[in-house]
Amino acid sequence: MKRRIIEIDQEKCNGCGACAQACHEGAIGMVNGKAQLLRDDYCDGLGDCLPACPTGAITFVEREAAAYDEQAVKENQRKKQQAQGGCPGQRMRQFSRPAPAAHSPSSPGERVSQLAQWPCQIKLAPVNAPYFDGARLLIAADCTAYAYANIHEDFMAGKVTLIGCPKLDSVDYSEKLTQIIAQNDIQSVTILRMEVPCCGGLEMAAKKALQQSGKFIPWQVVTLSVDGKILDKTN
Predict the structure, then answer these.
(1) Could you please report the per-residue DSSP string of the chain?
(2) Which of 52, 56, 88, 229 could pair with 22 in a Cys bridge, judged by C-beta atoms 3.0 to 4.6 Å apart?
(3) Across 37-51, 64-78, 79-93, least confident range
């Protein structure tokens, strides 16, 4: 069939790749440092790529071309997402960390992060992951990392850390946490919160999750002051 479709002038193309990024359908790709139309049936002829091109290398032409195939485009997008692991911010990762070394004011040494996995936000964390198997779970309020200087060594080391702020997220974490605790072999739960009232939402969500999981798991709540001191530890 004859229809409107893009054409890329190879002489004008500077290889910046902006058009390939702007093409949501994946019709354009970079080949030998130049942009090329890879498949006619991926090009919908709407021209989202045109304003992205800084050199004016892309224009519309009328020519014989395969019809736009929306289903093929969606399948291609799905395969790309699977290959990339979805959003980079949600891509599951596990880290091998050495035990934290002893530090002193006279010999501080190099501190190593004790974050054991990614993602660490409660909202983004998967319900099931290999690092939850036999894990000691730390459920921490966002602000605790800034208030307590040695959070990595004193609280995060040897644990899987999940963080959140019920005030900023405006969500009830209990359902997600219930699934994580119920569906995985969690060995213990530590809830690290600030003294401020809004942190009570995190504590309540974690306690509710423990109850709803139907499991008897050792747990404790540690409360920090806004100036970084440990105020209370309860079990």
Answers:
(1) -EEEEEEE-TTT-----HHHHH-TT--EEEETTEEEE--GGG--SS-TTGGG-SS--EEEEEEE-PPP-HHHHHHHHHHHHHHHTSSGGG--EE---PPPPP-BTTB---------EE--BTTTS-SS-GGGTTPEEEEEETTHHHH-TTHIIIIITTSEEEEE-HHHH-S-THHHHHHHHHHS---EEEEEEESSGGGHHHHHHHHHHHHHHT----EEEEEE-TTS-EEEEE-
(2) 52
(3) 79-93
- Tokens found for residue 36: 């090329």
Question: Helix 200-213 crosses helix 174-183 at what angle (to 10 degrees)?
Answer: 40
How far is it, in rounded angstroms, from Cα 79 to Cα 85?
Answer: 10
pLDDT confidence band for 203 (50 / 70 / 90): very high
Question: Tens digit of pLDDT for each residue in 127-149?
Answer: 888 889 899 999 999 999 999 99
Instruction: Count CB neighbours of 19 within 10 A.
Output: 27
